[in-house]
Structure formats: C-alpha cells, structure tokens
Design a protein that fits this description.
- By secondary structure, the protein is mainly alpha-helical.
- Helices cover 60% and strands 8% of the residues.
- It has ten helices and three strands.
- Strands 1-2-3 form a three-stranded antiparallel beta sheet, with helices on one face.
- Strand 2 and strand 3 form a beta hairpin.
- The longest helix is centred in the middle third of the chain and has 24 residues.
- The C terminus is likely disordered.
C-alpha cells in the first residue's frame, strides 16, 4: 500500500498568511529544505536544481541550454518541450529563493536570483514567441527586488549598513534601467517594489546614522546643475574598487 504523509501534515499546520519553511536532513545527512504549502510539503535540494534532477546530465536545465547554445549557435530557437522545462525551472528556483529569504540565508537567495535572471536573459535571446517572453519578463522587477533585498541584508550582516545602502542603490539602478528599457520610466517612482526598497534604505539610514550615498549626491548635483561635481562623483562611483558608500555615519 502507498505510504501517506498524514502525520507530517498534521504536525506542521499550513499558515496561509506566512511562509512556513524549515531545514532538515536526508537519509544520507545532506541538507534539505522543506516548504509547507496548501495540502502538501515541497522538499527542495539546496544545491543545483531544487528537484534534485540533472537535466541531460547537467546541474540545471539552464546549464544544459548554455551548452546547447555553444553547439547550435546564437540564433537557434527554443522548442515547446524546452520552454516547458524552463517554466518548471523558474518555478522551482522561485520556491527556493523565497525559502532562503525566510531562512535568512541571504547569499543563497542572491545566488538563486542570479540563476533566474540569467535564465530570463537567455530566454529573451532564444524565445520562439514574444508572448512567452513577456510571461517571464513581467516578473523581472520582482526578482530584482528579491535579489536587492537579500544582497543588502547580507551586507548588513557581514559588512556594514553603508554597504547595504550601496547595494540597495545598485538594485534600484537596475530596476530603473529596466523601466527605461520598456519606456515606462515615468512609473518608476510610484512602483511599489521601488517604494519598499527606498523605505528599507531610509530605515537603515536612520537606524545606523548613515549619510547620503554617492548615488544620492550625484542625483542632487545633477538636479542643481552642478555638473563639475557630478562628473567627479561619476568618476568616484565608477572607479575601480569604489565602495560607493555613504558620507558620514559609522561603519
């Protein structure tokens, strides 16, 4: 008779208002993630593809696609079966990224966000259908938001509040560039995800007594038509090894 999971579901109640996630060990001692969902539990591997498979012998389907591109050239198109497998991989990495965020394993959330963004970039180049491309691209700001927040929280823990704010600025610049790319920059300031990142940055500024970042100083210089100062700030931001940290405050 097929085994049931009644005890597991009974002992771990589903909470529709919050993400319920935990880390456990497999029979061989490897680390696993378990995510409680409505009417079930998802179990995810922590490395490679979350479902633990090796598509065509590769760690992820994205890795396989990169190899395919090398052999077939840059102008080939994805077929329906490949598109379906890509959709599966997007969903799997979404579940694991959300899990890492809630487990406060921020570096791993950044890693999985980068995988998703890279796969999105690949799909834009090789998509067989514009509508299919848009079905993924509509979530790019959300993935960038997750990545930026995770990156900033990792910096707050391991480096400083100043560095966390710098990474928020970097993420906001990427989101703004996306709005520009789609000719909707006029909606950028009113975007909910942008507002949340700005609020997070201001929270850090107030809590840790941090001054203005170089990007903020640059924006102000341009608004005040102080172009010589703006040029110097651009050089400072773009210089190799620039921390792009705020002025003032404590590390």
């Amino acid at each position: 008779m097929t085994k049931h999971i009644d005890d597991l579901l009974r002992d771990w109640e589903y909470d529709p208002e919050n993400v319920s996630v935990r880390v456990c060990e497999g029979d061989d001692g490897r680390e696993l993630i378990q995510l409680r969902i409505d009417m079930g539990i998802l179990q995810l591997e922590v490395d490679g593809r979350p479902d633990g498979t090796n598509p065509e012998g590769f760690d992820t389907f994205y890795d396989f696609l990169i190899a395919e591109e090398l052999s077939k050239g840059s102008d080939w198109e994805l077929d329906d079966e490949q598109c379906a497998e890509i959709d599966r991989e997007f969903v799997q990495f979404y579940h694991r990224r959300v899990s890492w965020l809630n487990l406060e394993r921020y570096e791993l959330a950044v890693r999985d966000a980068d995988h998703t963004l890279g796969l999105m970039d690949f799909c834009k180049v090789h998509s067989p259908d514009d509508q299919w491309t848009v079905s993924h691209e509509q979530y790019r700001p959300f993935v960038l938001y997750h990545r930026t927040r995770a990156d900033a929280l990792a910096a707050l823990i391991d480096v400083s509040a100043e560095e966390a704010m710098r990474r928020i600025d970097g993420g906001l610049n990427r989101i703004r560039s996306l709005f520009k790319e789609h000719d909707v920059e006029e909606y950028y300031d009113d975007d909910e995800l942008v507002a949340q990142l700005n609020e997070f940055r201001e929270f850090l500024r107030n809590k840790y007594d941090v001054g203005r970042t170089l990007h903020e100083q640059l924006t102000e210089a341009i608004e005040n038509e102080e172009y010589e100062l703006a040029a110097k700030l651009r050089d400072q931001i773009g210089s190799e090894g620039s921390e792009d940290g705020p002025v003032g405050g404590q590390r």
